């Protein structure tokens, strides 16, 4: 990408998109296109094509998606499937129709089989059933990456797919009904500290392990990959992670320490655990020359401090 290349970031207000936007600005890119949901409805095929025909971006980061935690995924399977399919289909097809040079599609590590061997290598995709609690989202993402592959094969496009592990960072979703585990715990502990609570309820057994990647690191990886001459349509899927995981209970204890919470952590084993482990094999991206820089301790401190600063005078976390 040249500094003057026209670059479209879909979903620029989301966790991934906002950090991509900041990364590109920090690196001096001058011609970045963004549209809010009000300005451009990505669910509307005609509207998306009209936008692409007018703007004719050279490069596209497909970061827009309907996302949420385990509760949202379990109760809105249809919405997660439909909306993500629509967004992907419209952006990918319009990119093809208007001659986009290179597109980066953001998948997710949750698309790997529920009982996938660990760590999860790219070739393990579709070797088993996905996790039932988020099949709507997972199937949509699998369809998106397969669409990129099919367009590369049939039309000669240059679309690449990355599969990031669990993400977190400033600007995350902290709503208790829709957030992922790490921001949900940050909110819980911040609320407990503010209210002087004596205990925190943690869903499940606390034994499942998860890998967490700071959104700043993901943005850095995505820009690196789209710029790399060694990464193209023939590279195949690319995992993005840190190569290490932590149990949910260990994560809770780490946030407890950072927050200064003095109470107890109580496990509600009547609630589901989800997949027991989700650790990515990151050897492919490591061999390409990229590695995550932000440790889990440093990252959680960053997000916790951002959350307190952002919501300290707000009833959001009371």
Automatic annotation (TrEMBL):
<feature type="binding site">
    <location>
        <position position="180"/>
    </location>
    <ligand>
        <name>NADP(+)</name>
    </ligand>
</feature>
<dbReference type="Pfam" id="PF01370">
    <property type="entry name" value="Epimerase"/>
</dbReference>
<feature type="binding site">
    <location>
        <position position="141"/>
    </location>
    <ligand>
        <name>NADP(+)</name>
    </ligand>
</feature>
<feature type="binding site">
    <location>
        <begin position="11"/>
        <end position="17"/>
    </location>
    <ligand>
        <name>NADP(+)</name>
    </ligand>
</feature>
<feature type="site" description="Important for catalytic activity">
    <location>
        <position position="110"/>
    </location>
</feature>
<feature type="binding site">
    <location>
        <begin position="164"/>
        <end position="167"/>
    </location>
    <ligand>
        <name>NADP(+)</name>
    </ligand>
</feature>
<dbReference type="GO" id="GO:0016853">
    <property type="term" value="F:isomerase activity"/>
</dbReference>
<feature type="binding site">
    <location>
        <position position="273"/>
    </location>
    <ligand>
        <name>substrate</name>
    </ligand>
</feature>
<keyword id="KW-0560">Oxidoreductase</keyword>
<feature type="binding site">
    <location>
        <position position="188"/>
    </location>
    <ligand>
        <name>substrate</name>
    </ligand>
</feature>
<dbReference type="GO" id="GO:0042351">
    <property type="term" value="P:'de novo' GDP-L-fucose biosynthetic process"/>
</dbReference>
<comment type="function">
    <text>Catalyzes the two-step NADP-dependent conversion of GDP-4-dehydro-6-deoxy-D-mannose to GDP-fucose, involving an epimerase and a reductase reaction.</text>
</comment>
<feature type="binding site">
    <location>
        <position position="210"/>
    </location>
    <ligand>
        <name>substrate</name>
    </ligand>
</feature>
<comment type="similarity">
    <text>Belongs to the NAD(P)-dependent epimerase/dehydratase family. Fucose synthase subfamily.</text>
</comment>
<feature type="binding site">
    <location>
        <begin position="106"/>
        <end position="109"/>
    </location>
    <ligand>
        <name>NADP(+)</name>
    </ligand>
</feature>
<feature type="site" description="Important for catalytic activity">
    <location>
        <position position="108"/>
    </location>
</feature>
<keyword id="KW-0521">NADP</keyword>
<feature type="domain" description="NAD-dependent epimerase/dehydratase">
    <location>
        <begin position="7"/>
        <end position="241"/>
    </location>
</feature>
<keyword id="KW-0413">Isomerase</keyword>
<keyword id="KW-0511">Multifunctional enzyme</keyword>
<comment type="pathway">
    <text>Nucleotide-sugar biosynthesis; GDP-L-fucose biosynthesis via de novo pathway; GDP-L-fucose from GDP-alpha-D-mannose: step 2/2.</text>
</comment>
<dbReference type="InterPro" id="IPR001509">
    <property type="entry name" value="Epimerase_deHydtase"/>
</dbReference>
<dbReference type="InterPro" id="IPR028614">
    <property type="entry name" value="GDP_fucose/colitose_synth"/>
</dbReference>
<dbReference type="GO" id="GO:0070401">
    <property type="term" value="F:NADP+ binding"/>
</dbReference>
<feature type="active site" description="Proton donor/acceptor">
    <location>
        <position position="137"/>
    </location>
</feature>
<dbReference type="InterPro" id="IPR036291">
    <property type="entry name" value="NAD(P)-bd_dom_sf"/>
</dbReference>
<feature type="binding site">
    <location>
        <position position="203"/>
    </location>
    <ligand>
        <name>substrate</name>
    </ligand>
</feature>
<protein>
    <recommendedName>
        <fullName>GDP-L-fucose synthase</fullName>
        <ecNumber>1.1.1.271</ecNumber>
    </recommendedName>
</protein>
<dbReference type="GO" id="GO:0050577">
    <property type="term" value="F:GDP-L-fucose synthase activity"/>
</dbReference>
């Amino acid at each position: 990408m040249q500094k003057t290349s026209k670059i479209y970031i879909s979903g620029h207000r989301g966790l991934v998109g906002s950090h991509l936007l900041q990364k590109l600005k920090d690196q001096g890119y001058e011609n970045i296109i963004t549209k809010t949901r009000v300005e451009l409805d990505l669910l509307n095929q005609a509207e998306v094509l009209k936008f692409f025909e007018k703007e004719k971006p050279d490069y596209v980061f497909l970061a827009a998606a309907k996302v949420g935690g385990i509760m949202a995924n379990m109760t809105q399977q249809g919405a997660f499937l439909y909306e993500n399919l629509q967004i992907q289909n419209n952006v990918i097809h319009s990119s093809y129709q208007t001659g986009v040079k290179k597109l980066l599609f953001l998948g997710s590590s949750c698309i790997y089989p529920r009982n996938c061997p660990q760590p999860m290598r790219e070739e393990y995709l579709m070797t088993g059933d996905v996790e039932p609690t988020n099949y709507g989202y997972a199937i949509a993402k699998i369809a998106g990456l397969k669409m990129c592959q099919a367009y590369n094969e049939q039309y000669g496009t240059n679309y690449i797919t990355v599969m990031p592990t669990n993400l977190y960072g400033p600007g995350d979703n902290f709503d208790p009904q829709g957030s992922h585990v790490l921001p949900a715990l940050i909110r819980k502990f911040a609320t407990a500290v503010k209210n002087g609570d004596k205990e925190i309820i943690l869903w499940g057994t606390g034994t499942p392990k998860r890998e967490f990647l700071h959104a700043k690191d993901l943005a850095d990886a995505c820009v690196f990959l789209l710029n790399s001459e060694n990464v193209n349509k023939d590279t195949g899927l690319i995992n993005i992670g840190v190569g290490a995981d932590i149990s949910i209970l260990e994560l809770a204890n780490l946030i407890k320490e950072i927050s200064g919470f003095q109470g107890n952590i109580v496990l509600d084993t009547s609630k589901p655990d989800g997949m027991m482990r989700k650790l990515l094999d990151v050897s492919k991206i490591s061999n390409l020359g990229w590695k995550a820089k932000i440790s889990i301790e440093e990252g959680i401190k960053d997000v916790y401090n951002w959350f307190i600063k952002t919501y300290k005078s707000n009833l959001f976390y009371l």
